[in-house]
TrEMBL record, chains A, B:
SUPFAM superfamilies according to UniProt: P-loop containing nucleoside triphosphate hydrolases
PANTHER family attached to this UniProt entry: POLYPHOSPHATE:AMP PHOSPHOTRANSFERASE, POLYPHOSPHATE:AMP PHOSPHOTRANSFERASE-RELATED
Protein known as: Polyphosphate:nucleotide phosphotransferase, PPK2 family
GO BP, sorted A to Z: polyphosphate metabolic process
Molecular-function annotations in GO: phosphotransferase activity, phosphate group as acceptor
Domain Polyphosphate kinase-2-related, first and last residues per copy: 63-283
Organism domain of life: Bacteria
Biased composition (Low complexity): 1-10
InterPro entries according to UniProt: P-loop_NTPase, PPK2-rel_1, PPK2-related
Ranges in a coiled coil: none
Spans annotated as Disordered: 1-29
Segments of skewed composition (Basic residues): 11-21
Amino acid sequence: MAKAAKGSTKTSKKSKKSRKAAAHDPGALWDVPPAEALRWARGTDLSAVDAASTPGWSGRRRDAEALLAARAPELADLQERLFAHGRTGGDRSVLLVLQGLDTSGKGGIVRHVVGMVDPQGVMHRSFGVPTPEEREHGYLWRVRNALPRPGYLGVFDRSHHEQVLVVRVDRLEPVKTWRTHFRELKEFEAEVAASGTVLVKVALLVSPGEQKARLAERLDRPDKHWKYDPGDIDVHRKFPEYVAAYQELLDRTSTDEAPWYAVPADRKWYARLAVTELLTGALRSLDLGWPPADFDVAAERARLSAT
Amino acid sequence: MAKAAKGSTKTSKKSKKSRKAAAHDPGALWDVPPAEALRWARGTDLSAVDAASTPGWSGRRRDAEALLAARAPELADLQERLFAHGRTGGDRSVLLVLQGLDTSGKGGIVRHVVGMVDPQGVMHRSFGVPTPEEREHGYLWRVRNALPRPGYLGVFDRSHHEQVLVVRVDRLEPVKTWRTHFRELKEFEAEVAASGTVLVKVALLVSPGEQKARLAERLDRPDKHWKYDPGDIDVHRKFPEYVAAYQELLDRTSTDEAPWYAVPADRKWYARLAVTELLTGALRSLDLGWPPADFDVAAERARLSAT
């Protein structure tokens, strides 16, 4: 599987058969459903996860791109049902949380995956260094303010989880303080889930080598200079500390109401497909039909005809 | 031109020639640049504008769809430059204001035109009936709060202009009150433009017949019931009053800093192409290059290599 994923030109009997099936249902190239293959299992050694792997997926890049394109209409349809639900008094929403180090591809996920649905139904928020106003409140204050309203797909580019990531690695709070956040994060997300929001928490895993290559590309391309910050190298140097921080984050805050999905992201095409599938699955799980009319359709037809 | 636009199968010499040119530059099918063909000329009789016309465009529907698709990469590139500009201290932004009666296709413009750019760089806001909190403030309060931050493409689905549209037609304020708003609207927009925002104000023009047909479709299709409100028929009955209100709005608030574009919208493909062109033009007018590095590229390369 790993071999095929690396784009080997050799075709095993299995992948030949899979690809044949895929002509009718490209989703058939998932040997293991992505929600299962990617769901964080407590205690997994994060440092041993291959960021270039493609868990559950037996296809190639071009198969993944075909499936991504094929999913677009369904994703858009599901999102529109959610939006319609919100417009007619429903209380459900979906929140996609994107965590990952610089260059892990969070922005590309927003552009290529979230970009497949109607912008009208998206509430996107990036969380950077807190503003002076934000600092006056607890760290969850700005997060609560950005939660998706009913009917919306919320997208967080970084999130409340930074409180045990950058805050831990850069020692912005004493150990005894940031350690209390694991429990708060879980309680907060349980509350969000209970209010009707389906959480899809994605940790994008980039390898140190790939991160270095992507930083080098930002330096080489003048159209990418604006994305580069000298501080990115400092983060790169702290890679092992971040792995330790992510390990504990995943182990301690992956719950049934708000599971983490660890998505290898060295291959952008895989990460984009995987997140598309996770998002599609979350929307499907809501099982929303079109809201029924709250008016008398025949009577309205008669009124309209009379105009 | 009108004939070709209606999809006649007869091909005039002119359109044959145009289409040949269009194979290399689909934009060549604009006989008159859209910003010129659609810009509101004070005193034009709005009630005489054909909502099924395709001003400036000599192509057919399929040509328009091809051009729309061809514009996507440029639009996305221009929007990314704007976003990069905002991230590096720039103060420019673009605000697309969409006005139009129910069924005029505002939502479709958001989905199909705004949907071509990175959702990360879009600030979309729909203005409905004001909330109790909003009512406690002047009508511009919520609008100011929704203005695009530097680097963003703001999108207003309805706007401050409703203060001389629904407010006028439904007599929500006395005449002497709403009449004062024309001046306020102009002053407000002059201020927004002076702060660095390019305004693209679009009035989508739907004909009464097409509106009736679209309302009937909403009644006929269960997946569109949620978009229907019995009040839509009341608005449909007031069509002539709305035309008068739009006439005065366009005549009195189209300025050099914030011009109105009157876009016939009975043919959705035309309206979508036209707004794409107007938006592309607005972004091009900013003439933004990629922000230069504010760090020493060679030094950073050396630092990165050393990791």
